Amino acid sequence: MKLEIKKMSISLLDDWLEYFDNGDFFHSDTWAGCYCMGYHWKEELVGKNPWDCTKTGAAYNRECAVKLIKQGIMQGYMAYADGKVVGWCNANDKQAYYSVHMDFSCEKKVKSIVCFCISPHFRGRGIASQLLDKVCSDAFDDGYEYVEAYPFVEDDWVYHGTKSMYEKSGFEVCGEESGCAIVRKYL
User: Are the beta carbons of 136 and 168 closer than 8 angstroms?
Assistant: First the structure.
């Protein structure tokens, strides 16, 4: 399968919205309205709690996500197959995430990954791994010291990626917090 990976930009906003508005990638209604806002939540930035994925919450999350993308605050990568988005990775400077309950005292330049959304028909084809490789490559080019991610210790929730995927890509486990492993790849 030929896959094209593109870094999020305002020019790709319509593709991103199409994916989140009409995608069949969520495993439950609980996530259908997240618009990948959970880790960007800061009351003065977005107001209501983005973990509210009800119909009302989804509309609000969508509005906030559009605002953050236009401001360059929400960043990441989209995977395209045959011109259609089939995957998304929310990756940004660690300081852009207000709801990552991990150590923020680090003085180093850190790229964090908080979410992968892969369409069900495309799962198991290495799309998340390809997105991960692109994040790491660009992070190196942009002068980051390491890439950090937070896969759940138990594989019940895989939207952070799996620990084994990170380990195969050269990440090392360097801690654990709130049921998540903290994995890092030094660049």
Answer: no
Each residue's pLDDT tens digit, 137-186: 999 999 999 999 999 988 667 888 999 999 999 999 998 888 889 999 99
Structure tokens belonging to residue 111: 């790229």
pLDDT less than 50: residues of the chain: 46, 50
**Domain interval for residue 122:** 4-186
Predicted TM-score (pTM) of the model is 0.89
pLDDT of residue 40: 76
Tell me the two tokens of residue 98: 């207000």
Q: How many domains does the chain have?
A: 1
The owner of tokens 């939207």 is 159
Name the maximum alpha-carbon separation found in the chain: 43
Give me the sheet containing 84-93, strands edge to edge.
Answer: 4-7, 76-81, 84-93, 110-118, 146-149, 180-186, 172-177
For 154, phi then psi, to 5°, come to: -90, 140
Ramachandran bin of 6, using left for φ above 0, alpha for ψ from -120 to 50, beta for the remaining angles: beta
